[in-house]
Amino acid sequence: MTSLAKPGTQALATGFGLSMAGSAAVGSHGPALVAGALAVIAVVAGMLLRRAATLAVLLSAATIVLAGLPPVLAALSGLSAAAYLVCRHAVGPRPVAVIGSWPTIVGAIGFTFIGLVATSFPVQVPWLPLVAPLGVLAIYLLATRPFLN
User: Fold this and answer.
1) Is 84 inside a domain boundary?
2) pTM above the 0.85 mark?
Protein backbone atom coordinates (compact mmCIF):
# COMPACT_ATOMS: atom_id res chain seq x y z
CA MET A 1 0.00 0.00 0.00
CA THR A 2 2.93 2.32 0.61
CA SER A 3 4.13 1.95 -2.96
CA LEU A 4 0.70 3.02 -4.25
CA ALA A 5 0.32 5.88 -1.78
CA LYS A 6 3.58 7.58 -2.69
CA PRO A 7 2.88 8.12 -6.42
CA GLY A 8 -0.71 9.09 -5.59
CA THR A 9 0.49 11.57 -2.99
CA GLN A 10 3.02 13.03 -5.43
CA ALA A 11 0.37 13.38 -8.12
CA LEU A 12 -1.98 15.06 -5.66
CA ALA A 13 0.80 17.41 -4.55
CA THR A 14 1.62 18.30 -8.14
CA GLY A 15 -2.03 19.02 -8.86
CA PHE A 16 -2.28 21.34 -5.87
CA GLY A 17 1.02 22.99 -6.83
CA LEU A 18 -0.14 23.70 -10.36
CA SER A 19 -3.45 25.01 -9.00
CA MET A 20 -1.49 27.29 -6.65
CA ALA A 21 0.75 28.68 -9.37
CA GLY A 22 -2.04 28.90 -11.92
CA SER A 23 -4.46 30.78 -9.69
CA ALA A 24 -1.67 33.17 -8.69
CA ALA A 25 -0.83 33.90 -12.32
CA VAL A 26 -4.39 34.49 -13.60
CA GLY A 27 -4.44 37.68 -15.65
CA SER A 28 -0.86 38.60 -14.82
CA HIS A 29 1.64 40.15 -17.20
CA GLY A 30 5.21 41.40 -17.09
CA PRO A 31 7.22 40.51 -13.98
CA ALA A 32 4.24 38.77 -12.37
CA LEU A 33 3.95 36.43 -15.35
CA VAL A 34 7.66 35.62 -15.12
CA ALA A 35 7.32 34.85 -11.40
CA GLY A 36 4.29 32.66 -12.17
CA ALA A 37 6.20 30.75 -14.84
CA LEU A 38 9.09 30.24 -12.41
CA ALA A 39 6.59 28.96 -9.83
CA VAL A 40 5.33 26.37 -12.31
CA ILE A 41 8.92 25.31 -13.04
CA ALA A 42 9.56 25.03 -9.29
CA VAL A 43 6.42 22.86 -8.91
CA VAL A 44 7.76 20.53 -11.60
CA ALA A 45 11.17 20.50 -9.88
CA GLY A 46 9.34 19.83 -6.61
CA MET A 47 8.41 16.42 -7.94
CA LEU A 48 12.05 15.42 -7.42
CA LEU A 49 13.25 17.81 -4.69
CA ARG A 50 11.12 18.69 -1.68
CA ARG A 51 12.97 21.96 -1.19
CA ALA A 52 11.76 23.18 -4.56
CA ALA A 53 8.20 22.99 -3.20
CA THR A 54 8.96 25.76 -0.73
CA LEU A 55 10.49 27.82 -3.52
CA ALA A 56 7.35 27.28 -5.61
CA VAL A 57 5.18 28.64 -2.78
CA LEU A 58 7.43 31.68 -2.35
CA LEU A 59 7.37 32.37 -6.09
CA SER A 60 3.57 32.09 -6.09
CA ALA A 61 3.42 34.58 -3.24
CA ALA A 62 5.67 36.91 -5.24
CA THR A 63 3.34 36.49 -8.21
CA ILE A 64 0.36 37.48 -6.05
CA VAL A 65 2.16 40.57 -4.80
CA LEU A 66 3.34 41.63 -8.26
CA ALA A 67 -0.02 40.98 -9.95
CA GLY A 68 -2.20 42.51 -7.25
CA LEU A 69 -4.75 39.70 -7.36
CA PRO A 70 -8.23 39.98 -5.92
CA PRO A 71 -8.60 38.37 -2.48
CA VAL A 72 -10.58 35.36 -3.74
CA LEU A 73 -7.82 34.28 -6.15
CA ALA A 74 -5.16 34.94 -3.53
CA ALA A 75 -7.12 32.81 -1.04
CA LEU A 76 -7.49 30.01 -3.58
CA SER A 77 -3.76 30.12 -4.27
CA GLY A 78 -3.00 30.12 -0.54
CA LEU A 79 -5.31 27.19 0.14
CA SER A 80 -3.72 25.28 -2.73
CA ALA A 81 -0.26 26.19 -1.37
CA ALA A 82 -1.13 24.79 2.05
CA ALA A 83 -2.45 21.58 0.51
CA TYR A 84 0.61 21.39 -1.77
CA LEU A 85 3.07 21.66 1.11
CA VAL A 86 1.16 19.17 3.25
CA CYS A 87 0.99 16.66 0.39
CA ARG A 88 4.61 17.19 -0.64
CA HIS A 89 6.06 16.92 2.86
CA ALA A 90 3.83 14.11 4.17
CA VAL A 91 6.09 11.25 5.23
CA GLY A 92 5.76 8.00 7.07
CA PRO A 93 4.21 4.65 6.34
CA ARG A 94 0.78 6.25 5.68
CA PRO A 95 1.13 9.78 4.30
CA VAL A 96 -2.56 9.73 3.36
CA ALA A 97 -3.39 9.73 7.08
CA VAL A 98 -1.56 13.05 7.46
CA ILE A 99 -3.10 14.60 4.35
CA GLY A 100 -6.65 13.56 5.14
CA SER A 101 -6.63 14.38 8.85
CA TRP A 102 -9.41 16.62 10.14
CA PRO A 103 -7.09 19.12 11.87
CA THR A 104 -5.22 19.67 8.60
CA ILE A 105 -8.35 20.14 6.50
CA VAL A 106 -10.27 22.26 9.02
CA GLY A 107 -7.22 24.42 9.71
CA ALA A 108 -6.51 25.14 6.05
CA ILE A 109 -10.11 25.84 5.09
CA GLY A 110 -10.80 27.74 8.32
CA PHE A 111 -7.86 30.10 7.93
CA THR A 112 -8.75 30.65 4.27
CA PHE A 113 -12.30 31.57 5.24
CA ILE A 114 -11.12 33.87 8.04
CA GLY A 115 -8.74 35.59 5.63
CA LEU A 116 -11.51 36.14 3.09
CA VAL A 117 -13.82 37.55 5.75
CA ALA A 118 -11.07 39.85 7.01
CA THR A 119 -10.42 41.22 3.53
CA SER A 120 -14.12 41.84 2.88
CA PHE A 121 -14.30 44.70 5.39
CA PRO A 122 -12.97 48.02 4.03
CA VAL A 123 -11.15 48.97 7.23
CA GLN A 124 -8.20 51.33 6.91
CA VAL A 125 -6.15 50.85 10.07
CA PRO A 126 -2.49 51.63 9.32
CA TRP A 127 -1.21 50.46 12.72
CA LEU A 128 -2.87 47.02 12.57
CA PRO A 129 0.12 45.21 10.97
CA LEU A 130 2.25 46.35 13.91
CA VAL A 131 -0.16 44.88 16.47
CA ALA A 132 -0.96 41.64 14.61
CA PRO A 133 2.25 39.79 15.63
CA LEU A 134 1.53 40.57 19.27
CA GLY A 135 -1.97 39.18 18.86
CA VAL A 136 -0.61 36.00 17.31
CA LEU A 137 1.87 35.65 20.18
CA ALA A 138 -0.93 36.11 22.73
CA ILE A 139 -3.04 33.44 21.00
CA TYR A 140 -0.05 31.08 20.93
CA LEU A 141 0.63 31.62 24.64
CA LEU A 142 -3.03 31.01 25.50
CA ALA A 143 -3.13 27.86 23.37
CA THR A 144 0.06 26.38 24.87
CA ARG A 145 -0.62 27.41 28.47
CA PRO A 146 -2.20 24.06 29.46
CA PHE A 147 0.87 22.21 28.23
CA LEU A 148 3.43 24.35 30.05
CA ASN A 149 2.50 23.23 33.58
Assistant:
1) yes
2) no
The percent helix, strand, coil of the chain (3-state, each to 5) is 80, 0, 20
Q: How far apart are CA 131 and CA 72, in angstroms?
A: 25
pLDDT tens column, 94-126? 766 667 788 888 888 998 999 888 888 887 878
Give yes or no for a contact between 63 and 74, defined as CB atoms under 8 angstroms apart: no
Residue 31 near residue 106 (C-beta atoms within 8 A): no
Please state the φ and ψ torsions of residue 124, each to the nearest 5 degrees: -110, 90
* Structural domain contains residue 44: yes
| pLDDT, tens digit (0-9, with 9 covering 90-100), for 26-81 | 988 999 999 999 999 999 999 888 889 999 999 999 999 999 889 999 999 999 99
Structurally, the chain folds into a number of domains equal to 1
DSSP 86-116: HHHH--SS-HHHHHT-HHHHHHHHHHHHHHH
Cα(25)–Cα(34) distance, integer angstroms: 9
Domain that holds residue 58: 2-124
DSSP conformation class of 28: -
